[in-house]
Design brief:
Order of helices and strands: HHHHHHHHEEEHHEEEEEEHHHEH
Distance between the termini: 96 Å
CATH superfamily of the largest domain: PPM-type phosphatase domain
Number of helices: 14
Structural class: alpha+beta
Shape: rod-shaped
Number of strands: 10
Largest sheet: 5 strands, antiparallel
CATH architecture of the largest domain: 4-Layer Sandwich
CATH class of the largest domain: Alpha Beta
Radius of gyration: 41 Å
């Protein structure tokens, strides 16, 4: 019956550890697979549990049942084990048997003490010349609990003692048939070995359960840390992304932003400049999460502070680069495109710090506005080229991040810059360039597409009419761009 108790405890430990292991695996999965574009529903705890096909009795009921069963088994064994020349069992004999059973109440708190107490009671019983009985009956439960509580050496020693000593005694002191003695010794040894092995298995299962619980706690702590970090980063990003678009007579300015994760690394911004001009910035931070959000906020703050003072896009990027080099981690940098637009003349000045090239669509086709420069935050003393041109009537200017061109469909084919140029070239004058680009992207990737990188689009479109006194400025600016 002690085996029944042992198996019930083993099954209970197995079930409980299984319940703990599943939330641990779920928590670890959530930490590494956080995606903002999908709403993840956390399964309820009741849905994760096994059906309770094995009822778990209260511990006190299990203790009482174990003591009663073991005590009854010992007393019955004493009563039915008469031996010639042995002392007739009396109240002391049965009292020793009951005492060995009552010791089991302390099996969880003092497993080694219960084992040694049982051994002493057995020795006292045999010393008083009471009839012998199968010693595995009182020793099974103490051996199991000692082996399952880091007392394996004591369990093996006691089991070996109760196998070797009877073997020697029955072979040499009170000789019995050799085969019967060997059979009984092998039987006892195998039984004790199985009990000890079961205890070792339960101990290993407990250790595994403790490890899973520790992993669960670490995973939950990591998940909470990441959630807090993303919440802070999202708050920072929301504070710095523009809430309103510039309202420029004769111009249409549009912007689109979609992050691939909870917090993206892309940003765009509009800054009011002297003399009614407007500064337009589009950038991409290499990292994600709270660190990227802080670098993004720093970059946008520097642009807003320095652009109205320095005005020149190349000077603005140079100043921002000098600050970021000494204030960002070595593995992090920022690509940024800064454009200064004069709405009254259509003249723009462009400086680029390693960002995707903007595309200008005019009646003559699509052209790249190419200005070179290294990303911000990599190296001090960088000089940035500056390009000047004029946006003619009916022209459309597209500023974009690499998330659009580097999108992949199910066949792992990339959307690519040539496809984006065709979208810009074929976009009807009456249609918005952002809508045309997103429609082509959706058609290319399909409905099951999982976004890989942030997508940022900013378009500046000039109305078809232009004042006559501005044509000369536009012509001279286009001529200077062609010469460069």
């Amino acid at each position: 019956m002690a085996f029944i108790s042992s198996m019930l405890e083993l099954i209970a430990i197995w079930r409980n550890s299984g319940r703990r292991a599943r939330p641990a695996r779920r928590a670890l999965f959530e930490v590494h697979m956080l995606t903002p574009m999908q709403t993840r529903t956390r399964p309820s705890e009741s849905s994760m549990r096994r059906p309770t096909w094995i009822p778990r009795p209260p511990s006190w009921a299990l203790d009482i049942a174990l003591v009663v069963v073991v005590g009854a088994a010992i007393c019955i064994s004493i009563a039915v084990a008469p031996e010639p020349d042995s002392r007739e069992p009396n109240a002391i004999a049965y009292g020793l048997g009951i005492a060995m059973a009552f010791l089991l109440f302390g099996r969880k708190r003092w497993p080694l003490g219960v084992l040694l107490g049982t051994v002493l009671c057995l020795n006292f019983y045999y010393a008083m010349d009471y009839p012998g009985f199968f010693p595995a009956i009182p020793l099974t439960a103490p051996l199991y609990f000692a082996a399952s509580s880091r007392n394996l050496g004591w369990s093996v020693g006691v089991a070996g003692l109760w196998v070797v000593f009877p073997l020697v005694y029955r072979l040499f002191v009170d000789p019995e048939p050799v085969l019967r003695v060997l059979n009984d010794s092998l039987r006892d040894g195998a039984f004790f070995g199985a009990v000890i092995l079961l205890g070792v298995i339960v101990r290993s299962r407990r250790a595994y359960s403790a490890e899973v619980s520790a992993r669960l706690r670490r995973a939950e702590a990591e998940r909470e840390r990441v959630a807090k970090e993303l919440k802070v980063a999202r708050l920072v990003q929301d504070q710095f992304l523009p809430t309103e678009l510039p309202d420029l007579p004769g111009w249409a300015v549009a912007a689109y932003y979609r992050s691939a994760r909870e917090v993206g690394g892309d940003f765009y911004d509009f800054t009011e400049m002297p003399n009614g001009r407007i500064g337009i910035a589009v950038g991409d931070v290499t990292d994600k999460g709270a660190p990227a959000a802080m670098v993004m906020a720093t970059t946008q703050g520097l642009l807003r502070a320095d652009a109205p003072r320095l005005v020149s896009p190349s000077a603005v990027l140079g100043r921002v680069n000098e600050v970021l080099v000494s204030n960002t981690p070595e593995s992090m940098f920022v690509t940024c495109l800064f454009i200064l637009l004069d709405p009254s003349t259509g003249r723009i000045q462009v400086a680029n710090a390693g960002h995707s090239l903007p595309y200008l669509s005019t009646m003559n086709g699509v052209m790249e506005l190419r200005a070179t420069g290294m990303p911000l935050g990599l190296m001090q003393g960088i000089k940035y080229d500056e390009l000047e041109t004029v946006l003619p009537p009916r022209s459309k200017l597209l500023l974009h991040s690499d998330g659009l061109a580097e999108a992949h469909n199910d066949d792992r084919e990339m959307f690519g810059l040539p496809r984006l140029i065709k979208v810009v070239e074929n976009c009807p004058p009456s249609d918005g360039l952002i809508d045309a680009a997103l429609s082509e992207l959706n058609r290319f990737v399909g409905p099951e597409w999982e976004q890989e990188d942030d997508i940022t689009l900013v378009t500046v479109e000039r109305s078809p009419t232009v004042r006559a006194d501005l044509r000369e400025a536009q012509t001279s600016a286009n001529s200077s761009h062609s010469a460069s």
